[in-house]
């Protein structure tokens, strides 16, 4: 039974289109190989898929460049010159873009602005003001983040300090941890060779300690109490 004639039009379904492309490409390569062997001809076949993938067949003992060179000699068309001209044109555009960018950089440094008219100077001034605003906002954000981080670390350090003070002096009747209901004083001194400020609560039965806070710290350290700075 003869196969029905296939209507030649674009296959809409992507899967079917890919299957058909793969089968027909292999068929073309097979025919090109047969033509090269049977007729002792040089064949170069290039196929570019819809996805941009390149498939190539070249006769044995030859290259695509050799085939193209023979084509140029036969037709009198210089394909490489056209490609070279396109490359030169693209290079020219890239150089102009590079010069423009370098000019903009110099102008933002305050160089090369003597030849600018009022409108150009005004536009440059506005661009730089906008750039400065962005930099300033970023600077403030970084500063704010640093301050928040420092405050968090300070809060954690105070919590650790209160915990250490509670652990070290909770059993002594004359001293206690600073809280909302006591009398407060601070002393300066050294803990483990590190200078710092120490907070203590002074009990009512030791009123003279208000006049000599440093003696409190000396007494604490000489008794091997854990008094930490914050």
UniProtKB/TrEMBL annotation:
Any one GO molecular-function label of the UniProt entry: protein dimerization activity
Keywords: Coiled coil, DNA-binding, Nucleus, Transcription, Transcription regulation
Coiled coil: 77-111
Residue ranges annotated for the K-box domain, each copy included: 84-176
Cross-referenced SMART domains: MADS
One Pfam family this sequence matches: K-box
InterPro entries in the cross-refs: MADS-box/MEF2_TF, MEF2-like_N, TF_Kbox, TF_MADSbox, TF_MADSbox_sf
Subcellular location, record wording: Nucleus
Domain MADS-box: 1-61
Any one Gene Ontology cellular component term annotated for this protein: nucleus
Any one of the GO BP annotations: positive regulation of transcription by RNA polymerase II
Name used for this protein in its record: MADS-box transcription factor
The organism's taxonomic lineage, starting at the top: Eukaryota, Viridiplantae, Streptophyta, Embryophyta, Tracheophyta
